[in-house]
């Protein structure tokens, strides 16, 4: 695994996609899917794109949120990650565990994940594929890309459409009132961290008894 990501020059998303394809083919040929070398689901296999307002969670935070989702979803549960790819990638690392996961994401680089990838633009919150049935996910984890009420309100429509009930929202501390208003969620004690420090204080919000307190 590449640990010193800082030394790696930033590639364009096009180059990155091509590189990723090459690694995947190479990896399939050598049958070393999970043993060692390149892990297709690790953060770092896809770099943050700041123009899309993407900020990955720290490894520890992504693991913590992924584990919380698995527990909340229950055995055989379905988990939706809305604009939260670093949590999705952590869930994929637990491959073979008893749950399924979808990623709804604007960044088409994540289409490398195949059928689990659903292109998602919060400006069209219910523009979703027909096979994505209403209330078909045990928990929805969402991290709206922008700290605006408009973005939260539209993302909230998607969340409410997808979830059977449980919601785990990650957004700025300044969004507390709006989060309560649009989704009925309350702030947890757990403080999520990002791999690069963000200027805005970031928090998690839930509407069920979670392990994040």
From TrEMBL:
A biological-process GO annotation = methylation
Identify the PROSITE patterns for this entry: N6_MTASE
Question: GO molecular-function annotation terms?
Answer: nucleic acid binding; protein-lysine N-methyltransferase activity
Q: Does the keyword Nucleotidyltransferase apply?
A: no
Superkingdom as given in the UniProt entry:
Eukaryota
The catalytic activity, as recorded, is: L-lysyl-[protein] + 3 S-adenosyl-L-methionine = N(6),N(6),N(6)-trimethyl-L-lysyl-[protein] + 3 S-adenosyl-L-homocysteine + 3 H(+)
**Where in the cell is the protein located?**
Cytoplasm
Primary site of residence: cytoplasm
- Short name of any one Pfam family annotated for the protein: N6-adenineMlase
Its cellular-component GO annotations read: cytoplasm
What keyword terms does UniProt attach to this protein? Cytoplasm, Methyltransferase, Transferase
* Xref: PANTHER family: EEF1A LYSINE METHYLTRANSFERASE 1
Name of the protein in its database record: EFMT1 methyltransferase
Q: What is the lineage of its organism?
A: Eukaryota, Metazoa, Chordata, Craniata, Vertebrata
Encoding gene per record: Eef1akmt1
